[in-house]
């Protein structure tokens, strides 16, 4: 495992779009996020992997200024979400676990509303919404009420909604919950494509090992409010299994996140 | 090195912001609405299209027609010679009744709270339950825009509606009686309308407070209606019980009698509907000169005549202040609660 100062040294060399230092959040006696240090580089897809209740959502809320930290600092796109939440939210798109829309409005109308909240004029909002609806593959469904949308369609519309503001960072909190495998695959492909094409930084929070492994450049393993390890899948494996004194060369190439994850939580932590 | 990179970065962000604003402006030349206005517009549209508002407006329109009808059919009996309010008979449109139907003011004091509650009880909790609150809050707007816009939109809808009703009643009166209201009467009606808006705003804020407190819209609606029922039905009964037991004997001193009467009034004035009805009575019946007990000495030498508008306004000032402070207190509580709450998705 890499110690915190080491990670820090490693990442401060390049430009970090998200920086968390000593971030702490308590609920009464319970510490949801415990002096968390994390840095995410511009343009990467970062996976925050951890079981339910690990504090992933709380961390995300603090990045957006929707919850206040009890200690430590957050910087997103160079702004502090505690003092400058609007500037942060101008640049960061957030897709929550279960995205909600106004069910009595159509998908198009919902997007236009978001666009207008982001400072588009009525006509520009319409153009922008139409363009995004095509990009997420909902063309032909835009005039249906969102109440009639399937779960997968809602998530796609959610992605379009996040893209309206032309974000520098997208934060996705368990975005694939309740979508069928085919839908998940398409959804993840869409995210990767967007990130690569438009150089959008993506923070992907999930407890699905395979999805994280499939899309993420780097992964942070997050348990009980603490970040246990950060790195790409192979370096995580190397860190973990080297400590055991096993030979490096022979097994290394075939490690998957499963091995790493279960290694960390053997027996103790409840996972899916 | 670091400072240079920071400056460069800021430069870049600035130029980007300017570029994006330029792009937005030049595209169509349309003006960009402030997000607060966008939310208010959307909320107003939601209210006006909602079934609950249509039903309420239908009820209120029907009762208005009913009360206007009774007022007009009894108009000739209501205007008596030697009446100190004789010159203010236009105002009687709002207050007279033959006992079959309550007057317009009574209807407003009864249905106004329902209107306020209906427009506010699901303001925050339904957004939360639908999961739209989290999405809204992740847009580049300040958090208080949402609760402020909800309040502003509902208040705007209520104001337009009550003003229209007041003007319609005036118009109908003009049409059937054939005598236009004087400037004084018109101003009194304007102040009455403002007062009704304030009264409905009180109930609106109370229900917004419940919508912040309770997760379920049904709980919020029922609690707000419970408060309304308590004040309009049970509270007067309780006051009756208390004052009956404390009533001074007929042989008591005048000071004792006055003290008792004032105590009773203090209890009554904790009710928002009492404040509203006292204020409307004073505004629409210019001959009312006191809302509390008067001694014979105070009455001696007084000529029965209408008060000027300024004096009537001075008399209702405490009532208006009371209603306004009630409105502000419940808004402040809901504002603080809403700003402090951590919003998770659903």
Shape of chain B: globular
Note the gap between the termini of chain A.
23 Å
The biggest sheet of chain A, with number of strands, parallel, antiparallel or mixed sense and barrel status, is: 6 strands, mixed
Mean pLDDT over all positions of chain B: 84
The total of helices of chain B stands at 15
| Beta content of chain B | under 5%
User: How many helix segments of chain A?
Assistant: 11
Oligomer: heterodimer
Give the topology string of chain B: H per helix, E per strand: HHHHHHHHHHHHHHH
Spell the H/E element sequence of chain A: HEEEHEHEHHHEHEHEEHHH
- Poorly predicted runs of chain B are none
Structural class of chain B: mainly alpha
The portion of residues assigned to helices of chain B is: over 70%
- Largest sheet of chain B, if any? none
**Number of DSSP strand runs of chain A:** 9
Quote the distance from N terminus to C terminus of chain B. Answer: 46 Å
Which residues of chain A sit in consecutive blocks of at least 5 with pLDDT less than 50?
9-13, 247-252, 267-272
Describe what this molecule looks like in 3D.
The complex is a heterodimer of chains A (272) and B (346). By secondary structure, chain A is α/β, with parallel strands linked by helices. Chain A contains 11 helices and 9 strands. Chain A has helices at residues 4-11, 56-63, 85-91, 107-117, 122-135, 151-163, 181-198, 209-215, 233-242, 248-252, 257-265, and strands at residues 16-27, 30-41, 45-49, 71-76, 92-95, 169-173, 201-206, 218-223, 226-231. In chain A, helix 4 (107-117) packs across helix 5 (122-135), helix 5 packs across helix 6 (151-163) and helix 9 (233-242) packs across helix 11. Chain A is globular, with a radius of gyration of 19 Å. Chain B is an all-alpha fold and 346 residues long. Chain B has one domain (33-224, 269-340). Helix content of chain B is 76%, strand content 0%. Chain B has helices at 2-28, 35-49, 51-73, 75-78, 92-95, 104-120, 125-130, 132-137, 143-177, 183-213, 217-246, 254-268, 272-284, 296-299, 309-340. In chain B, helix 10 runs parallel beside helix 15 (309-340). The longest helix of chain B has 35 residues, at 143-177. The radius of gyration of chain B is 26 Å and the shape is globular. The model of chain B has no long low-confidence stretch (mean pLDDT 84).
